[in-house]
């Protein structure tokens, strides 16, 4: 009877050891993936560029910002503020036929 108890304890220890090993391996894999994705994001350099667009009938700053805004801006409103500053716009009204300078970001160095 004592031999069987000892065998059961040994089996229990093995099961606990295996579960612990799998949990540790999973934790290490998770940490590794998190570090890898953080490094990739940090290594991706984006460059700021400017282009000209012709305002067409029905265009609004909001629509244009929706097309060009990127993660470098906190919001579409922040992007619109920059567009207004660059183009010396006193208000938020634009007209068909106007040329606007719009900023954008790209990963490609041009």
Task: Give a description of the structure.
- This protein is of the alpha+beta class.
- It folds into two domains: 1-44; 47-106, Membrane-bound Lytic Murein Transglycosylase D, Chain A (Roll).
- Helix content is 55%, strand content 15%.
- The protein is built from three helices and two strands, in the order H-E-H-H-E.
- The chain has helices spanning 2-43, 61-68, 76-86, and strands at residues 47-54, 99-106.
- A two-stranded antiparallel ribbon has the order 1-2.
- The longest helix is centred in the N-terminal third of the chain and has 42 residues, at 2-43.
- The mean pLDDT is 87.
- Poorly predicted regions: none
Q: Approximately what portion of the residues adopt beta-strand conformation?
A: 5-15%
Principal-axis shape equals rod-shaped
Structural class: alpha+beta
Main beta-sheet annotation: 2 strands, antiparallel
Q: Overall mean pLDDT score?
A: 87
Please give the domain count: 2
The oligomeric state is single chain
Q: Order of helices and strands, N to C?
A: HEHHE
Kindly, what is the distance between the CA atoms of the first and last residues, rounded to a whole number of angstroms?
Answer: 79 Å
Remind me, CATH topology of the largest domain? Membrane-bound Lytic Murein Transglycosylase D, Chain A
- What is the strand arrangement across the widest sheet? 1-2
Q: In total, how many beta strands?
A: 2
CATH superfamily of the largest domain: LysM domain
CATH top-level class of the largest domain:
Alpha Beta
Count of DSSP H/I helices:
3
Estimate percent helicity.
55-70%
Rg is 29 Å
CATH architecture of the largest domain: Roll
């Amino acid at each position: 009877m004592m031999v069987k108890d000892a065998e059961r304890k040994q089996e229990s220890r093995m099961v606990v050891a295996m579960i612990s090993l799998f949990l540790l391996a999973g934790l290490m894999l998770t940490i590794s993936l998190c570090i890898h994705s953080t490094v990739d994001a940090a290594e991706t350099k984006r460059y700021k560029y400017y282009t000209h667009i012709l305002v067409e009938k029905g265009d609004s700053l909001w629509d244009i910002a929706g097309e060009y805004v990127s993660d470098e801006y906190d919001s579409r409103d922040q992007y619109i503020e920059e567009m207004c500053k660059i183009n010396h716009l006193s208000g938020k009204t634009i007209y068909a036929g106007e040329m606007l300078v719009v900023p954008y970001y790209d990963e490609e160095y041009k």
